[in-house]
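Please check both lines for our workbook:

___
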Amino acid sequence: MSDSQEFFEGIVPGSVSERHSLAMERIREIRDEAVPEEGDGDYFRRMAAFFLDPSYEETLPGRYENSYFDPAYAVRKLKEKGKILSFLAYESLNIMPFRAEKMLFDEVILLELFLEIYGMGDEATEESIRAAVKSFYFDYMDHAVTLRVREQIDPSMDFALNIIRNEDLSDPSYLELFGEYVDDDVREISSFLSTLPEEKIQAMADTFTEGFRKGFIAAGKDLSKKKTVNIRYELGFERVVKAAAENFEKMGLKTTLMRRALYASNRNSAYRVGYSGAVSNRQMEFDHRDDRAVFVDRAFAERKKEVLEKAYEEYKEEAALFAGPAVMETFGDEPFSPVNKKETIRMNGMQQKIMLELSGEMGKIVNRYIPGEERSFTIISYPVPKIGPRFKEIFEETVRVNTLDYDIYKDIQQKLILTLEKGRRVRIKGKNGNRTDLTVSLHELPHPEKETVFENCVADVNIPLGEVFTSPKLKGTEGILHVKEVYLFGLRYENLEFRIKDGFIEDYNCSNFDTEKENKDYIRENILHNHDTLPMGEFAIGTNTTAFSMAKRFDIFSRLEILIAEKTGPHFAFGDTCYSRAEDISVFNPDGREIISKDNEETEKRKTDPSFRYYECHTDVTISFDELDSIISVDDDGNEYTLIADGLFAVPGTEELNKALRDV
C-alpha cells in the first residue's frame, strides 16, 4: 500500500480498493458502448480504452494530432467543450506513473473525475465541466501539495531510489519500472553508461557531489546540520545517481528523489522539476503549458498557500534538515520551435497576476522552513545520444569541460576581476550582425583591498567552471541586448532583443512568429514569466573557451544546456540575483576579499517593504564569443580598460583562454 493510500484510507468514503474496482468496472462498460464516431461519446470511449490499457503512443508526433490530447483536434471534434476535455485527457497521462508507483488513491480520484464528467451526459457544458475540474483541484489540493513537499524532503518516499539501488542497471528494462515515457535515447544513454568502467562513473559522481559540498564551504554554510539532499535528473543516468547517492551518504546526507510534478496544480509551465523520463511530444507540452488556467483564481491561490504552509508545518523537522537540490541536466535535443494554437487554454491577465503573487508568497513560505542562507545546490550537465552520431566524443569532451583545472581558471579570472574593478561601468558591444550595445553599471567599491564586486566562480555549485559575475547596479544599466539565436528552457528564439533602461527591461521582441504580438507574448510568457518587466539580476563574463571550442567543433551550440552555454561568452540574467534569499551571508573570493554586490536597488527593498517579493526566476541570455566585439571597463574619468577586443581576451595573463578561441 502506498503512502498516499495509507494516508487517506478511512478518511474518504469507502475503501480505496473498493472505489477502484467500481470505477474500473464502469470504465470497461464505457469502452464497450456503441457510440457514434463523432461527438462526446467517441471521446469517452477512447479515453476509457486508454485507462484500461494506457501508453504514451497516442501522444507521439504523427498520432498526437489525431488524438484528444491535442486541443486543436479536441476543439475540432467537440466544439466549445474541446479545450477542457483535452485538459482532462492530458491529466489522464498521470495514470501511468500512478500505477507504476502503486498510488491507488491518486488513480482512483482521477478515474472518479472522469466518471463524474461522463455522468453529466448530454447536459454537460464547458462551464459545468470546468466547475467539476475546479472542485477536484480545490478538494484534493491538500493531498497533492503534501505529497509534493514530502517527495523532496522525506527520505522515506523512496520509490525511485529503491529501483536504482535494487535493479540490475546493466539491463535497460529497469527503466520501465518508473512509469515515465522511455524513448530510444533514454535506453541508449543507460546502455552507454553501463559500458563505462566503475572508476569513470565514480569520477562523474565525485565531480557532482563535490560541487555540492564545496558550495556549502564557499558560502560559509554548515553542511553538518543537514541530513537530506534531493537529486534531480533525467532517466538513463541511474548508475551515476546511484554512485552520487552513496557519496552523499558518506557526507551524512540521505538522498530523496521526487518525480516531476504530476498534478496541474503543482506544475511549472516553463520546465520540469524532479526526475523525469523523456518528453513524448514537445508540442504537446507547449500546448498544455497554461492548463492551470482552468482553475486559477483568488480562491485557488489562497488555498494553495494555506495547504503549503500546513504541509511544511507538518514536516518542519524534515524541512529543517534539507540541504538543497543537486541537479543533473542533459543537453542534445533537436532545436524546437513551437506552433501557437488558438485552441490552447491560456491564462488571462488577472490569472497571470494571481500566479505571480502566489509564486512570491510560496517562496516566502518555503524560505521560512528551508532558509536560503542555510541551503545550497549544485548543477551539472551531460549530453544524450540524440545529440548526433558523435555522441561518445561529445560526452568525453563534456566530462573534460566539467573537470578543468580549478587553479588555472581561478588565477585568470582574478586578473579579469581586477581589470573590471578599475571602472564604474562596463560597455559590451556585438559584431557579425549582433546589435548589442549595452552599458552595465557596477556597484561602488570603497575598500578594494578587502572587498570586491565580482565573484570568481570556479567549480562548486555551478559546473562547469568559468565565469566572473556580479549583481549590476540598476541605475545606469541601459542599452540594447541582442542575440541572433538562442535556446532557453528548450525553446528557440530568433533575433531576441531587449531594450534596457535603468536596469529593467523596457521593451523586447524576436522574429519567431509573423506578428509582433505573437513574438512579444512568446517572450513575456517564457522569459519574463508573465511579469511586465524584470531587472537585470546578473552580468557575467564566461571564460570557458574550451566549452565554446567544443560547441563550435561539433556544431552543437543550438543544443547546449544554458549551464554550459552561459560560460561561452558574456551573459545577462533577468529576474532575481544569484544571491537571492542569501544576500546577507558573507561570501569571499579565493583571494580572501568579500563580495559586496549581492543586492541591487530592487532587492534592497526587502529590508523596509513588507510587501516585497522576489521574482522567482533567473533567465540567462548569452552572447557567443563569435558575436562579441568588445567588453571594456570605463571609469568616471572616461579611461578605458579593455577585457575583450574583437572577440579575444586582452588582459595580460589571460592569453591561455584565446588558444581555444583560435582553434575554431
In short: The CA atoms of residues 482 and 497 lie 4 Å apart. Confidence is low (pLDDT under 50) at residues 1-13. The chain has three domains: 3-139, 150-338, 404-663. DSSP finds 23 helices and 19 strands in the chain.
